[in-house]
Amino acid sequence: MIQVSGLQKSFTLHNQGGVSFEVLKGVDLQVDSGECVVLHGQSGAGKSTFLKALYANYSVNEGQIVLRDGDELVDITSAQPRRIIALREQTLGYVSQFLRVIPRVSTVDVVMQPLLDLGVDKGICEEKAKTLLSRLNVPERLWQLAPSTFSGGEQQRVNIARGFIVDYPILLLDEPTASLDAKNRKVVVELIHEAKARGAAIVGIFHDEDVREAVADRLVDIRAV
Ligand SMILES: Nc1ncnc2c1ncn2[C@@H]1O[C@H](COP(=O)(O)OP(=O)(O)OP(=O)(O)O)[C@@H](O)[C@H]1O
Ligand SMILES: [Mg+2]
């Protein structure tokens, strides 16, 4: 599902004297269907940078990132923006550490939007959104409110529900359990197991050792320079 080879990424800080440093030095990674690979490495090693490159949020200097989209293989380092948008709609899910809240949009709407965008019937989307929200213990009184005033952990659970509303074949998870209690971490572990069972290829970053041990098929070291 994912084939990364020779991935090299440097950052250049143009507004700070043009200083340049290399974060990813030739990373290779292959992830198969139904497999969960966990990235580890010290803070600042480049784990989030690597996930953002996989989501085509960051351009890279060298290397290839080939993703399977149905019968097609797409190298996202050279794909057209339109191709990447289509890939993100149907194939590639990404749960960031923080929810980017849109003011005045209710929690249920925030969660169901990606499924609605695929043309799925609104009633079905709403039902699936509510099921995920209740599994993640987001109180029902919050569902019709916009998540901007929610606690950090509540926002994160809304974010996770949104990330799991579509059955993406590829799922990227950047510390989705960072501000969750043990009970909710367990729910996320279950969601990951279910995604693996339906054949999703997952790349994740997890702070908690218990989560890592519960979901990882393989650990991959992203080394600091
Ligand atoms: N947009 C950016 N511009 C410049 N430098 C960046 C940018 N994003 C990340 N970096 C730098 O790249 C390095 C890797 O950052 P990254 O966020 O990938 O680390 P990480 O492994 O996810 O760390 P953590 O465990 O703390 O989340 C850091 O030194 C960071 O300062
Ligand atoms: Mg990070």
From TrEMBL:
UniProt keywords (A-Z) are: ATP-binding, Lyase, Nucleotide-binding
For the keyword ATP-binding, the answer is: yes
Spell out the InterPro entries in the cross-references: AAA+_ATPase, ABC_transporter-like_ATP-bd, ABC_transporter-like_CS, CP_lyase_PhnL, P-loop_NTPase, Sigma_54_int_dom_ATP-bd_1
Q: Signal sequence: where?
A: none
Among the GO molecular function terms of this UniProt record, one is:
ATP binding
The UniProt entry, under SMART domains, shows: AAA
Taking every annotated instance into account, which residue ranges of this chain make up the domain ABC transporter?
2-225
Q: Which family would the database say this protein is a member of? A: Belongs to the ABC transporter superfamily.
Query: Under what name is this protein listed?
Result: Phosphonate C-P lyase system protein PhnL
Q: Which organism is it from?
A: Oceanospirillum sediminis
